[in-house]
Specification:
Ubiquitin-like (UB roll); 88 residues; 3 strands; alpha+beta; 3-stranded antiparallel β-sheet
Length: 88
């Protein structure tokens, strides 16, 4: 499975001023859409942000894929370690 970039939108706005920021829309790198949602949901729950119904999923959108010919039409460049680009 390739790494993909997803936009995860929660049902609740989860927007506050101050240091907590905005958590209603998140961008997540994961292998599957369920994994992307679970990453966001776990973080919101761990930090006790919003009410339980605010943490419900509204939608998950595939933005890009780390593959040569992505089905979604947008290439994601994700690397575990820095690459030599040859650019000076």
């Amino acid at each position: 499975m390739t790494t993909k970039l997803y936009r995860v939108t929660m049902r609740g706005a989860l927007n506050w001023s101050g240091t907590q920021g905005s958590h209603g829309v998140s961008f997540v790198m994961a292998r599957e859409s369920n994994e992307a949602y679970n990453i966001v949901r776990a973080d919101l729950g761990r930090r006790d942000l919003g009410f339980a119904n605010d943490r419900e999923l509204k939608c998950v959108e595939l933005i890009a894929e780390d593959t040569e010919y992505p089905d979604c039409g947008t290439r994601l460049y994700a690397f575990d370690k820095p690459m030599k680009t040859g650019i000076k």
